[in-house]
Each structure stands twice: as C-alpha cells, then as structure tokens.
Specification:
- The structure is a single chain.
- The chain has about 230 residues and is α/β, with parallel strands linked by helices.
- About 45% of the residues lie in helices and about 10% in strands.
- It has helices spanning about 15-40, 45-55, 65-75, 80-95, 105-120, 130-140, 165-175, 185-195; strands at about 5-10, 120-125, 150-155, 180-185, 200-205, 215.
- It has a 6-stranded parallel β-sheet with strand order 3-2-1-4-5-6, with helices on both faces.
- The protein binds ligand L4RZE5RM and magnesium ion.
Amino acid sequence: MPIKAILTDIEGTTSAVSFVFDVLFPYAAKHLPDFVRQNAGRADVAEQLAAVRRDGGEPQADVERVIDILLGWIAEDRKATPLKALQGMVWEQGYQAGELKGHVYPDAVEALKRWHQEGFKLFVYSSGSIQAQKLIFGCSDAGDLSPLFSGYFDTTSGPKREAQSYERISQGIGVDASQVLFLSDVVQELDAARAAGMATCGLAREGGELTGHVTVDSFARINPSAL
Ligand SMILES: CSCCC(=O)C(=O)COP(=O)(O)O
Ligand SMILES: [Mg+2]
C-alpha cells in the first residue's frame, strides 16, 4: 500500500535539539514565572495550573509552588501536558515579540514543500503543544510553513512511546496506519509507531543508526514513494 500521509516529530527531526534545549526551554524558564503570576486568573491558564497541582500530587500548592514544580519539570524535560501547554503560551509571546524564530533544517523545509506538492498529507506529532507546533512552523526561519500541514497532534493523543497513540492518530487523520510514514529521532517512538502498523524512518542527524529502522541523516534522503 503506498504512503499517503507523513507524520513527523519535531525535536531532533525537523528541528535541532539545540534549538529546543538552548533557546526554547531557557526562554520558557525565564518568562514562565511572571507569565503565570500575571495570568493565573485566566481560564486557560488556571486550567493548566490545576492540572499541574493534580499531576504533581500537590492539590493545595499556591501559585509560587506551582511555578517551582513547573521549573523542575522544565529542568528534567518532563513531557507533562500542562507544562507543554503553558510553554506554548509563553513562547507565543516570544514569537510575537520577534524574540523567537522557529528553527527548521533547510533539508526538512525543502522536502516538506516537495512532498506537499506531490500530494502527501503532512502532519506533526510532538510532545510540544499544538500551539507550540504551529508557532515553530508558522514563525520559522524559513517563513510561514503552516500551509504545508494538514494537522497537528500532541500528548493529548497519548505519549509518544505508546502504540495506542499512533493508532489514535491514524484514525484521526483517516488514513490506514500502513499508509502513514512516521519520522523521528527516537527509537522508542519509531518502535511504537511500527507496532501500530505505520512505516517508519529514523533521523540521526549526527550519523549512526536507530536500531531496527531505516535511518537517514537528512530529509533529502527520504523517498516516501520507495518505502
Ligand atoms: C513544538 S516545539 C517544542 C518542543 C518540545 O517542547 C518538546 O518537548 C520536544 O518534543 P518532541 O516530541 O518534538 O521531541
Ligand atoms: Mg524528537
């Protein structure tokens, strides 16, 4: 069955790990405390703060304690949905102020444009919130890439290392899993996608192999029609 849809990870796949760790996460760590203090009464923020209290097992935590929990989660790269939602809100301010520009590798930009033109449906699946995904591609250093994408999925579809998440996503996009190609730099994510029936391709930008999966170092080496 031919590939009809391509589902891509962001960090380490379309975009540099260093952009996430050296630019996005420090930006969030710097601006999140004041953002939370100033917006704790906003309904969408309050909903995420309640989820932090619940997931952190501290239902009575005050705002300052919630901020401490969030900063701890950023430091340990916890893929917690409420943290990711709040990070997306903070980054939005950075993109709007022109302080952030999304990094997307030139080879990824070129391939995504070509695949879109060839008729493949393109989707994103990242631990970053859907808002954060739209920002990295919509305000990228290669311009607005958002018209290329047909949809976005985050951890509200489930964790990236569980097969069920990929089953949900293929149902969500209405394409049989066997006709979806998943791209990632993390072998456990590729294993989970394969267990759900998807085709896989690993990205190892510094070279090397993602065990058990076809591995490339650039989007230029991926031919979805030959998989
Ligand atoms: C959407 S850009 C921010 C990426 C992020 O917050 C993250 O945790 C990276 O996760 P990924 O699933 O893309 O490896
Ligand atoms: Mg990744």
